[in-house]
Amino acid sequence: MLDDMKTIGQYFIRARKLGVSCLFLVQSFFSNDKNFKLIRRNINYLFLKKVAGLKDITYIMREYSLDINKKDFVKLYQDATKNFTDFLLIDIDAPPEERFRINFDVVDVSKMKESK
């Protein structure tokens, strides 16, 4: 298993530099395995379905600079995952106004801030 994670980590490093997208599906965002951390550091997109709790949300916000406060991020996540088939897509490298999507539809989070 450890060798598999190391190989997958290498794919993520090389693929990103070549403009190739890799998909890595996990049930938990948490792992102290160095290869799993390597994969997390080299992603371009993060698809979120149901997470275990706010601890996961906080960890994701800490891992990536998302330019959104926790309250707005939690609301966005809850709105995006209301329905079983829906998801929140985070484009890590996109400008802030295009970073968040419910399914594949861009959500302008600046409007969330204006509505307060």
Number of domains: 2
Number of strands: 4
Low-confidence stretches: none
Main sheet: strand order:
1-2-3-4
Structural category is alpha+beta
**Helical content band:** 40-55%
Give me the Rg, rounded. 15 Å
Quick structural overview:
Helices cover 45% and strands 12% of the residues. The chain is an alpha+beta fold. It has a four-stranded antiparallel sheet.
Give structural notes.
The protein has 5 helices and 4 strands; from the N terminus they run H-H-E-H-H-E-E-E-H. With 116 residues, it is of the alpha+beta class. It has 2 domains: 43 residues, no CATH class; 73 residues, no CATH class. It has a 4-stranded antiparallel beta sheet with strand order 1-2-3-4. Strand 2 and strand 3 form a beta hairpin. Helix 1 packs parallel to helix 2. It is globular and about 45 Å long. The model has no long low-confidence stretch (mean pLDDT 85).
Keywords, separated by commas or semicolons:
alpha+beta; 116 residues
Topology:
Layout: H1 2-18, H2 34-41, E1 45-48, H3 54-63, H4 70-80, E2 88-91, E3 100-102, E4 105-107, H5 109-114
